[in-house]
Amino acid sequence: MLVERDQEIARLNRLLFEGAREGSRLAVISGAVTSGKTALLHTMTDTAGGRGVRVLPAVASASEQKFPYAVLEQLYQGMPTHLQRSRPRPGLDALRDPNGPDQAELSLLQNFHRTLDELTGDAPLLIAIDDVQFADLPSLRCLAYGIRRCRSEALSVVVSRGSLTGPAATALDELLHEPKVCHVRLAPLTVAGVSTLLTEELGTAEAGRHAAAYHELTGGNLLLLRGLLDDRFSRLTRGPLDPAPGTDAPVAGELFRQAALSCVYRGGPAHRRVAHGVALLGDATSVPLLSRLIEVEERLVRQSVALLTEVGILHGGRFRSDAVRTVLLDDLELHELGPLHHRAARLLYEEGADPIDVARHLLSHEAPEPVEEWITQALCDAAVHAIAADRRELAMNCLQMADRYTTDEREALQLQATMVQAMWPFNPLSQMRRLQSLAGPAGSGLLPAPETIPVVIGLLGLGRMDEAAAALERVSRAAAEHPGTELDTGLRAIRLALSSTYPDHPELRPFLDQEEDDGPWDVPLSPDQTPESPHLTAFRALLTVLSRGVDERAVRAAERVLETVRLSDRTMLTVHAALQTLVYADRHATATTWCDRLIEETSERGAKALLAYFCVLRAQIALRVGRLRDTVRYAERALEELPARGWGVTVGMPLGMLINAHTAMGNHDAAAELLARPVPDEMYRNRFGLHYLYARARHQLATGRQHAALTDFRACGEKMADWGLDSPATLTWRLGAAETWLTLGGQERAARLAEEQLELAGESSSRTRGAALRILAATRPRHERIALLQQAVGVLQASGGWYEMARALADLAEAHKQLGDLDTSRLMTRRALRLADSCGADELSRSLQRTPARSALSEAARAGEDTAAFSELSDAESRVAALAASGYTNREIAAKLFITISTVEQHLTRVYRKINISQRRELPASLDFDVAYTA
């Protein structure tokens, strides 16, 4: 603290100028560079001059350390003229003395001793030497000789000493370790000392709040603190007259950086080189590495690191301020910087350091010529680590630099493939040209088999099936030579993926038929059975659901994959396949939870392609449960994140979701615009194209082109049958065709298709079964429809197919109307309207002729009823009345609201009395309290 420094000054004054004299006195002021030693020394000399003490000052310098008697010469310059004649004359004295150099030095020592005696005989004398650690050896010997032999009480000596010592270390220690030497060690300011200084300098107690921040940047170093304060004053003089709040907080500017450089330079060349080395490495945690980098012995490196820590430049081996590291790096000459970075990279690589740290140095300069073999490998290793850490730009920089310097063709191709794999999840469009250039090498075997698999996947997405097949053949040969390896597993996973996604290509057929066991599960798996490779498990589960329908074993396997596999470049297709399994199996709640989680993760990572893929799955979930607005929102986002060109032959999926949703909503112009967009022909030969074809058929049916719709529905069915994917989980093409036949008057054909769909759907409650029951009801006589439609409504309510449930309720309302039960028809219409509005099915709402007014109050007003009566209903009564008006039975209301049937009856009795009606059917049709429909 500043108070402690004042106390040290007082102690030195008492020692040197006051009290009983007991021979010569020596005071040593030590401390790190810029700790204030010189300032304290000057204070002492000023005090001595004010007391009539003769002062002989000298400043030792590292640049003069090799010159004999350089310090002694300065001392003689402060003596009277007649004494200066005895000053040393190196060389001449030795030549004139017949006894040689030793006798000449002895004469000098004796002359200096006599001079001190003469000076102290007249008045007190103070010898003050700054930076004595840099003093030359002959001067130190003279000083030691004179001080020991001068018995005058008038002689005092005060020196400042830094942490480093030069060649004269022994003589210096001999001088400074006299029995009565007073040692004053100047430590950096504490936080409290910094707070005091700031308050004095800034004139405000508010500045003390930032003392910890100032101390954190400077370590209490006075010179660095002064630099920060000067930067602050500089900012204020350039800014407004009234400084903004927070201007007392420290900001490292140019003056602070220059102060830091001054701290480093004052330590000498070797110290400066150490500081530059620490700046290059980023820390000083490995002294041996630092020593080898800058070619300075470890002992000196440790001293310099200790000094840099003491002066506040380093803390825990790292820079307190990034600004200091930056200015030290800028201080290096360009011709020095490149070789240092290269040497640092090589040393780190040899020590097995983090590959990213190695790459940081390699990327900072051009590699030497000829390129050393280890450089390419180091860059590749760094790229792998960067990809794992989602540092894509760094990974690409490493790969591109490695590609520039490699001379091996296969290695260059491997690097190109790695670039594609690294960037594809983020920006496929940027990698398409590079991917296409790899098609030939992949098919010819120039590209290693492990790197060929991602290329194959990319080629399939582009629809380049011939090239993908040629590359797969090469991979198959390599995998056959190494059965059971990761390559073999990856190949089998691709085979399963192709069977579920790209089964309609003669070029790929030989590859798909190679192994019989790569298909759906034929035997049940026990719940505790360990699955095979997650990649195989995920694609096998997907193929099982697509080809055979909902399979609990496949669903459990997909859930295990999602729970155990982390999303990455190598697992993205596996995770996507597992999630698709849940979607096609109508596990909507679980699929939504996982999908939302993955959308958030990929959005944070900036992986636009992956984000688009998961948004499409989210749209598919929304479509299957009948949330049409959500379907449009997620599908449009998918196409925003990844434009249609980036989807390649899989573009049928996002377009299919959008077209289907717009058709159901009644936005037929929007659906037609989407259908007018060009799509690749190869799209129709994969599963994603089926969704597009089905959506086109729905649009054609909704716009009165039944025969075109029937053609597309049949095409869907034929493809699904040929591909082995004809299950209710994939697409319900039979129901679409049945609806089309109904509009054409083909009741029998429609009934047959609906019955086939029911048989495939089984007895479980599912969206498909409910929809099939609805369509089958339309083929039956009027008196048979009600039972089938009620069954359909129950199944759909249990399975969560809200749009299909709205359609079933609408049909049920029409059936009751045709049988003359107008009250029940009105209740069913209300429920259908609620659901249609909730789902976004505007066309269905319009067809049911819903009135604009929605509140019970507005309907009551139009009917001339007393609106005040409705305000008397309690919340519980309002909820019961709303459900009753929507057609729910007392038992259903009790189950929904978790109350007893008796309580429901009591609430309804009070409702009837308050609004002056006598029975349920008289409840207002728009009695709407936003009751949520839940499964």
From TrEMBL:
Coiled coil: none
Annotated keywords: ATP-binding, Nucleotide-binding
UniProt domain HTH luxR-type: residue ranges: 866-931
Pfam families to which the protein is assigned, alphabetical: AAA_16, GerE
InterPro entries xref list: AAA_16 (IPR041664), Sig_transdc_resp-reg_C-effctor (IPR016032), TPR-like_helical_dom_sf (IPR011990), Tscrpt_reg_LuxR_C (IPR000792), WH-like_DNA-bd_sf (IPR036388)
Protein's UniProt name: LuxR family transcriptional regulator
Organism for this UniProt entry: Streptomyces javensis
